[in-house]
Amino acid sequence: DLDTVAVLAKYESGIVTMTDTCRDAAYGYDQRIEVFGSKGMLTAKNEMTSHVELATVDGHLMPPAQWSFPERYKHAYTVELSEFVALVESGRDSEAHKLEQKAMMRHPRVVKTAAAAEYSWRLGRQVKLSEDFEALEKELKEKESAK
């Protein structure tokens, strides 16, 4: 199990992404996103408990980030639960159910990306999404048996 992880991904289009995560942040659960490009930057910061910030000669004092998922995502959880109930009520043969099944097909890519990141860590090398995962598993077993 890992506490701190950094993943660098390069896409066919040339876009490079960097994702890092750490379970231990003394100031609360830190979730931010920054996107940089040749024409500017996009930033989404943490949700704070208040938008009041104190600025004095000694510096700036900001309120803490909302601590937990239920605090931070109360609205999102409410919407998700409402949509789930509507989906169940609409039935399996409904258009809503068919659209949801189609939307869920994006998840295998997420799972594959996470698995590639773990293989990369365990094998100590770059892993491409196009690689054969059965071959990666074989390589991993060989590496572990050589220890």
Describe what this molecule looks like in 3D.
This protein has helices at residues 69-72, 74-90, 95-104, 107-123, 133-145; strands at 4-10, 16-22, 33-37, 40-44, 54-56, 59-61. It has 147 residues and is α+β, with helices and mostly antiparallel strands. The strands form three sheets. The chain has a two-stranded antiparallel sheet with strand order 1-2. The protein is extended, with a radius of gyration of 21 Å. 1% of the residues are buried. The mean pLDDT is 87.
Question: What would the keywords be for this entry?
Answer:
147 residues, alpha+beta, two-stranded antiparallel ribbon, 5 helices, 6 strands, 41% helix
Shape by Cα distribution? extended
**Helix/strand order:** EEEEEEHHHHH
The largest pleated sheet is described as:
2 strands, antiparallel
Helix content: 40-55%
Query: Overall pLDDT, averaged?
Result: 87
Unreliably modeled segments: none
What is the gyration radius calculated from CA atoms?
Answer: 21 Å
The end-to-end span amounts to: 19 Å
Beta fraction of the residues?
15-25%
Instruction: Decide which structural class fits the backbone.
Output: alpha+beta
Strand order of the largest sheet: 1-2
Kindly state the number of beta strands.
Answer: 6
- How many separate helices? 5
